[in-house]
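Protocol step 4 of 6: structure prediction from sequence.
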Amino acid sequence: MPQKFEVHILGCGSALPTRKHLPSCQVVDVRDKLLLLDCGEGAQLAWRKTGLNWQKISHIFLTHAHGDHVFGLPGLISTMGLLGRTAPLFVHGPSTLQPFIQCVVEQFCTNLDYEIHFEPVDSTRHQIIFEDRSMKVWSLPLQHRVPCCGYLIQEKPGLPHILRKMIDFYNIPTWAINHIKAGEDWKTETGEVIPHERLTTPPDPVRSYAYCSDTMPTADLTEWLRGVDLLYHEATYADDDIDQAQRYGHSTARQAATVARAANVKKLLLGHFSARYDDENVLLEEAKSIFQNAFLAHEDLRITP
């Protein structure tokens, strides 16, 4: 059974909160390690509905210094302190966010029992900005009105699966299982060497998730997204508002779908909807005319790449 890799949508609206949508915020759960992507207004209330433990957040990845992506952060930082957090918190984002983080800490969160480390991200470079045993996180330079970057989260390969029937047939003890998964052969009591390839099946395929909000489409972005399992791409406007999209550094649903098709991604999740749309199905239909495997994000959605 594949290990956990889930995306929880807490907010998928744009600048104006509506009765349907909160501003941008997501939780990505990779093997029970929680990453927060953006932190718009209302993030704490939306988080409560997930049942996830927000003290498990170790890293927050912010895309840019616009309020609909960060106004939920002061409350979240404060609440973590009130709940007794002691583990350090790492906040990643363009350097333009550093004064905001510093102001939050100095004005509202002066007596925290945990440290906040701001780690600036070069929003002009596609590079690894975080890595552990489970995953790599890459920055994705985006084209917006201010320095902005998205994030690509890639699983690292897991170990092969050992076959139950082989464990029983060769009486393999529990202590040896992880050694075999790591590539060791098994030697029976009679001295026969059983290659680990006969004892195991290949590991699960690695999965990837890309978060792109806010941006206009670019050729470089298409290359960096090639083959991604699940792409969240902003679709703030429909194509009849393309002039508005260009003016404010956003994408239409058709443009998002064109990026998905060109990058040969597997699934496209549309989000960052303008408040002008009471029914986002107009955006979905527009996207599906270009890329069929497209879906609308919504609050409380949980999706696997």
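Step 5 (inspection) to follow. The mean pLDDT is 93.
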